[in-house]
Amino acid sequence: MSQALLNLRELSCGYSEHRVVQHLNLHLNAGDIGCLLGPSGCGKTTTLRAIAGFEPVLAGEIQLADQVISKAGYTLAPEKRRIGMVFQDYALFPHLSVAENIAFGIRKQANCERITGELLEMVKLSHLGKRYPHELSGGQQQRVALARALAPEPQLLLLDEPFSNLDGELRRRLSHEVRDILKARGTSAILVTHDQEEAFAVSDQVGVFKEGKLEQWDTPFNLYHEPLTPFVASFIGQGYFIRGQMLSPDTVQTELGLIRGNRAYTWPVGSAVDVLLRPDDIIYDPESTQKALIVGKTFLGAATLYRLQLPTGSQLEAIFPSHADHQPGQQVGIRVEADHLVAFAVPGSIATQASLGESGVRRYSSDS
């Protein structure tokens, strides 16, 4: 079993009258890459700065490798934390060469040349060691910043929106490269981003933030398929809700028919619920009697993303093969094809009035 390297317990940060982060609990295992994900102003960067030692802690504590490094009234100096940092603007020294930038933080000067050479090779910049930052592209500068942060062999690496200054294709390619480099070295890391694709490409665990609170800390797969709150369900992926009524623990009646899934809920029969549907749950079926109005479309190449409106006014998104070309204003046949059921109680319904726990869900196990 992996050992937790980083622990945040009941962490609160901010100002005397305004707590940006509240009651935050998470842990990161040694060798894992975590991500703090959420909209602007949700507290993810404040959390990263608190881990780095740049932000005081109002309550709770931060523990790194069994050592408390921050708590109310105490902050271990950033330079004593064995934490590396990759900034959004790279923060390279303009008067130093690539090799000199990387070597800057190496403590053991006897091994400096060897370590610098290994890192240059790892980030694929061996041939550019004598160049200066202004002579490099954005992607190359980011690799130098990563190598420099890894040079002192930190226990934990923090990356603050590291790809935000790069264009789309380069961001995707570099995010995969960074994950490969961190995994090859066994380096634990925390990434901050608002880009879901980036978070999923790099991370083993992702924490979704909303207004200073951690909604869910989980694997990308579980965030997408088993969101614990309506916010996570709608923020991750492209999720839409339609209203339904519980017929049994694993079956809901909706305007798209019966939806049955691989989990059971403890809410009473008759409870009003909102059912989460993803674009890949909606199948184009010209023979179906269930029709939807196309109100928008986005061509994706191999497929087309359609925004659909149901007779009740509810909207969904669906991905159809690109050869099934339809125009806004047309009616199309659809059906639901989902092997899961993700539902949330409607406020004021029977389900929320009954004291049945936070999510009301009981997952099936292999013994069920």
UniProtKB/TrEMBL annotation:
It comes from Pseudomonas guineae. GO terms for molecular function: ABC-type ferric iron transporter activity; ATP binding; ATP hydrolysis activity. SUPFAM superfamilies: MOP-like, P-loop containing nucleoside triphosphate hydrolases. This is Iron(III) transport system ATP-binding protein. PANTHER family: SPERMIDINE/PUTRESCINE IMPORT ATP-BINDING PROTEIN POTA, SPERMIDINE_PUTRESCINE IMPORT ATP-BINDING PROTEIN POTA. GO terms for biological process: quaternary ammonium group transport. Gene3D superfamilies: P-loop containing nucleotide triphosphate hydrolases. Residues 6-236 form the ABC transporter domain. Keywords: ATP-binding, Cell membrane, Ion transport, Iron, Iron transport, Membrane, Nucleotide-binding, Transport. GO terms for cellular component: ATP-binding cassette (ABC) transporter complex.
